[in-house]
Amino acid sequence: MRAGILIIGSLLWDNGSRQKWRQDHLSDTEKIFVRAPIQYGRKSQTRNKTYTMVFRQGGALGQAVVIPCLSHITTVKELIREAVALWNAESLRDNDGKVGSSWGCVGVAFRNPKLAAHLAQEWAAYFAESAGTPVPPVDRRGILDIPWPKKTDGSPLSEVQVLLATATQPTDSPPTPNQVADAWIYQGNGQYERYFFENIKNGIRTPHDDAIWKRIKTASPDWINKPEYAEAISILEASA
Asked: What own/partner pairs with CB < 8 Å and gap ≥ 24 does 214-218 have?
């Protein structure tokens, strides 16, 4: 089976160790845009309590990215290898074979669960030992419990048969678009708003982006004029 990574945030565009992970594990010639239930919903302590992206079961669909892995999956060891590498890239350190912690974990989805039943069983055993407490929408078996994504044109995602993704712990109540925007507007001198603009530039979109941008535009913080945000702002203005 061919595996792919379902990406909803900075794994797609951050440099350093994440760039090396993309080069070593992902097909840089393929990028598939899909619909997935995502929103800004995790208050990140390392980003001055601004919001990062989460999956939200049953939530409105946004646009995420699937990038196929360079290697195919034939055994659970190969699946685990990709999952561990993904978690190391997400957490920015070597986790000694772990695939999760208290704030997040790697989940796996199979396009045809019946055909992958044995693989799923072996993955569940590894997940139980190596992830700690599952983070929704990943269940206790390590399964990413969201519908198999469709591409943005409505056609089935058939290029991969296995998806891996990282789920991170959301806030108890989903923040409003204004709360998300205000966290960036009032963060201080500006820095972490880059997360929003890089997502926009790279095609990661939530249903609330227009409302978030409207709030930011009205407040007009100094960093709004940074030249590196011009491309993302043009995209936002065109979709408003």
From this structure: 214/240, 215/177, 215/178, 215/181, 215/182, 215/185, 216/181, 216/184, 216/185
- Alpha-carbon distance 101 to 159, whole Å? 30
Residue type, 55: F
DSSP state, 219?
H
DSSP 143: B
How far apart are alpha carbons 21 and 28 in whole angstroms?
A: 11
- pTM for the model: 0.96
Calculate the average pLDDT of the chain.
96
Cβ(166)–Cβ(90) below 8 Å:
yes
Say which DSSP state 238 is in.
H
Burial class (CB in 10 A: 0-12, 13-18, 19+), 104: buried
State how beta strands 2-7 and 62-72 pair.
antiparallel
pLDDT at site 239: 87
